[in-house]
Design brief:
Blueprint (H helix, E strand, L loop, with lengths): L18 E5 L2 E5 L6 E3 L29 E9 L6 E7 L5 E4 L6 E3 L1 H14 L2 H18 L4 H4 L2 H13 L1 H14 L4
Antiparallel strand pairs: 1-2, 2-3, 3-7, 4-5, 5-6, 6-7
Helix pairs in contact: 1-4, 2-4
This protein binds zinc ion (2 copies).
One zinc ion binds next to loops.
């Protein structure tokens, strides 16, 4: 993305400016109050820089079948575009992710990290998952800069960023089609 964003507001705490944290030279924006995180499209370089060679564990059921998506329009607005976002959920998981159909950005409430990680732990090999997280943590200690409150969740954040990079981006054309078929309010 070439354009430079102005200050963005939290979709939940509308008077709060989002702040910036850095993971592997990748900038993410988060709400200092609720610790929700905003990912712009293309902000997932961490998964592509060769440090994460074994991403096979990501190939669990999450978001695999396009008929299992549920999408609904919602109140929250995209911090970048200021249009309503869409809430995405999947099948038997209670994970909810907010996506913008214009800029393809993704908003995650703080609790969604835990849910996604829990879902992955349940569906994938625990051993592979733990090895993955541990190897990331060794590197992450040096590259993270941000508030301690967010650092507590750093393994979750980077794991989920990797997941989104590989799954959600690939699914975006499907999601856009579902959104375009939704009844207009
Ligand atoms: Zn907030
Ligand atoms: Zn947007």
């Amino acid at each position: 993305m070439v354009y430079h964003k102005t200050v963005m507001k939290c979709p939940i705490h509308k008077d709060k400016d989002l702040k910036t944290a850095i993971f592997y030279n990748t900038e993410i924006d988060y709400c200092p109050q609720g610790l929700g995180v905003w990912f712009e499209k293309g902000e997932f370089r961490i998964a592509k820089d060769g440090k994460q060679k074994n991403l096979d564990w990501l190939d669990v059921d999450l978001w695999k079948e396009k008929t299992k998506f549920q999408i609904s329009e919602e109140e929250k607005q995209c911090p970048a575009c200021e249009v309503p976002m869409y809430e995405l959920s999947y099948n038997d998981s209670d994970i909810k992710v907010d996506i913008c159909n214009v800029c393809e950005g993704v908003w995650l409430d703080r609790g969604e990290f835990k849910k996604i990680i829990g879902y992955l732990r349940e569906k994938s090999s625990k051993k592979v998952m733990n090895e993955y997280v541990n190897s990331l943590l060794e590197e992450t200690a040096e590259v993270f800069s941000g508030p301690e409150s967010l650092e507590d969740e750093v393994s979750d954040v980077i794991t989920v960023a990797g997941l989104l990079s590989h799954k959600l981006s690939a699914k975006f054309p499907t999601l856009a089609n579902i959104i375009s078929d939704l009844p207009r309010s």
